[in-house]
Amino acid sequence: MLGPLHLLSYSALLGTELYQTFVVTKITYQELPRPAFTTLQKRLFPLYFKGQAFLVILTAATIPPHGPSSLIGDRRSWIPFAVAGATAALNFLVYGPLTRQVMIDRVHQETRDGRAIGRKDNMSTEMRLLNREFSRTHAMSIHLNLITIGATLWYGWWLATKLDSSAAGAG
């Protein structure tokens, strides 16, 4: 009975990761003005990281035939979950919130400085430090997300090798 739920949760996890990372973020970055993009991202990514962490847990919990205990004894199946779980948790609990807070701090500093974030001339020391902190936390969040996606794909590859394709040709 876990099989269908497992396949659906895995599909939702991978689909959400790929769509949010490579479609939504790219289109909104290109099409929205910077303030609107920033506002959207600071609201969207906490939900995305929470959903990603939840779907990793749900997918691990529904592994056929006995849930998580089915992972014991086969490294090829539990290592991707350990990696995806750790990186998703770091984004949800640490780097996502840090990046979001620095985004907010930069907007406030921009107001105090009376300058746009993208302007490089006469940038305040505070803004320079915030930009450096944002670059660091944002890069870490991006890399953790890509590692999570990689681990999800790794597990998907392993899962696909377990499928019985003999029924596909039966007619």
UniProtKB/TrEMBL annotation:
Residues 8-107 form the TMEM205-like domain. The chain crosses the membrane at residues 47-66, 78-98, 137-157. Keywords: Membrane, Transmembrane, Transmembrane helix. It is found in: Membrane. It comes from the Eukaryota. It holds the Pfam family DUF4149. One of its GO terms (cellular component) is membrane. PANTHER family: LATE EMBRYOGENESIS ABUNDANT PLANTS LEA-RELATED, LD23009P. This is TMEM205-like domain-containing protein.
